[in-house]
Write a structure and sequence with these properties.
Blueprint: E1 2-6, E2 14-18, H1 28-70, E3 86-89, E4 95-99, E5 102-103, H2 114-124, H3 136-148, H4 162-169, H5 184-191, H6 196-212, H7 215-225, E6 232-233, H8 235-243, H9 252-260, H10 265-268, H11 274-290, H12 296-304, H13 311-314, H14 319-328, H15 331-334, E7 341-345, H16 349-366, E8 374-380, E9 386-390, H17 403-406, E10 409-410, H18 416-426, E11 433-436, E12 460-463, H19 464-469, H20 473-483, H21 485-494, E13 513-514, H22 516-527, E14 538-543, E15 549-552, H23 564-580, E16 594-599, E17 605-611, E18 616-622, H24 637-649
Parallel strand pairs: 3-7, 5-6
Antiparallel strand pairs: 1-2, 3-4, 7-14, 8-9, 8-18, 10-13, 11-12, 14-15, 16-17, 17-18
Helix pairs in contact: 1-6, 2-9, 2-11, 4-6, 4-7, 9-11, 11-12, 16-24, 18-20, 18-21, 18-23, 20-21
Amino acid sequence: MTKKKTLVAGKKLKTEARPRRRVRRTPARVVVALRAAVMWVIRFGWGFGWRAALVLGLILSGSVFYYYVNLVDIEELYDGRTYGATIALDRYNEPFAWRGYQYGGPVTAGSVSPHLVNAILSMEDHRFYKHFGLSLQGIMGAILINLREGRGAFEGHGGSSITQQTAKMLCFGETFDPQLWESQSRFEQECRKTTLWRKFKEIPYSLALELRYTKYEILTLYLNRVYLGASATGVEAASQRYFDIPAHALTIQQSAMLAGMLAAPSRYAPTKSLDLAQQRAGIVIDQMVRRGFLSEIDAAVAKDMPAGLSSAAEQRTGGYFVDWVVENGPGFLNRNQTDDFVIQTTYDGDIQKAVDDAVKDVFATKVKDNSNAQVAVVVMSPDGAVRALLGGRDIEAVGLFNRAVNADRQTGSLFKPFVYAAAVEWGMNYDDIITDSPITITIPGQEPWSPKNYNNKSWGDLTLAEALAHSVNTIAVRISEAIGRDLVIETARQLGIRSPIAPGPAIALGTSEATLLEMTGAYAGIRNGGWRVQPYGLRSIKMSDTDTSLMEHKGNPGIRALSGPTSRQLVYMMHKVVREGTGRRADVASMEVAGKTGTTQESRDAWFIGFSGYYVVGVWMGYDNNRPLQNVTGGGLPAEIWHEVMLRIHEGLEPRPLPFPVHAERIG
């Protein structure tokens, strides 16, 4: 205690006692214990850390060494496709369609356009020549962007260097096994998926690439392996695919467009959206300026004149045609073959465009907007060479159901020309008179059958030509029964019908099914003077690296299905269908044409097939679910589509007369 003196009135100073402050002190042993604990943690952390770092270093070194020793000569890695590609050439030997992954051949970083290299480095890895294979700055930046945008750290932007991207293209040395994966594309998607584990795998493999190959070689490998949309693997294939030029000739604009596709080939492919691809190319050009690869003046000029597509790349139709040719060609075209093939076809892009435009116009002006009715069209030369083929309203379709080739539908009155052809072969003539009167056919075990005409109309006396022109059911059945159904079936077979034909009396009314391609080929035989026609689209097949043909189409065999006089009579009768009968909407005033309408029960199918001196064209319309059409017959919308197609494909052609009987009257 300390004392304090106080002054009290009238008295001496008095001293008061004041308590001392107690100072608390931590016992020395506690300080020592804390200090010891901290030192233990430091020593443990250091000991564990350097040991863990050593283990990780050994693992990393071992992984790098493992990948390094397993890397092969770089030339062996350029073409990484498991399967080859097929390029289709049209009738003028110009490419118009591709199947499989196309590889244009090896290039080097020094052989391609320098604009392309600069554009790729600007967008993908501008520090490529400065880092050791890993772009840590790029990875951290990508993680921040992904987190900022609400994704996982490794979902979305990858931030990978070109070396890391090349590592993923090589699938870290793994090879495609068809026993484990449903397709090569699925295998590659899995390889290139950005996950934490795959990021870890990228590190040793990328380091091994940097140790095994030079920067120049890695960039070369990247240029050969990168996928650029539209089935193009490597910059050479992409350059040929989109611009029809070699990669060394690419301009600034074209190079920027290819580099812009690297982030999302399917989205930015110019064949999918040219406008979007051009916008993306503008971003690449700005980036090239920012990285010092391009001047402001050159960039302004390039952006004012964006890259376009070659005429072949602009061709977005013909998918149904190529699917048909490949599916029905030699087996090796359908299998997962490793070779590249070039197939020469009978395809004509101008005719296909005419078909597509005609269908679009008719559906846009004469069909309800919400209609899901389908249509199929076939155009062929009289010898059976198919020039265009539309398997549905999806004009740009690839790999979809092809209604022109694979849809078996009832033919209706489209079958009647076979009945009349058999009758003429049997001895009747186009001007013979036959009476339209009721007919009843009794088959043992079945109810009597009495066919009716459209609208129950009775025509009285008609010539054969008039009966076919007006598609009189009772007369067709009467003729079929008179000459024998077997003769009708045999005539259809001779003209190329291979589908099953029901042998009952209703055969004359087209109750059996066939495809549009099949029926159009049979009508081509009528137009072709009675010589059977086998529709074909393949002219020859050869390997892409040789001019030697593996096979060639030798032409249709010279098998006569109808005599010349019979064919001419039938052509004349079908001409009257267009000029005077059910097919008047198909008539083309400037030329002689012939054809036949077909409508099945309840209008489930509507057909028109006919020909001129130049082409045979078939049109089918209906619903995939086989429900009835509304107010549509073969002489309606199908005939109008046929008419529009014929006008377009005959533009600029001199009229060519059809082969009629010598004494037949030329109508119109």
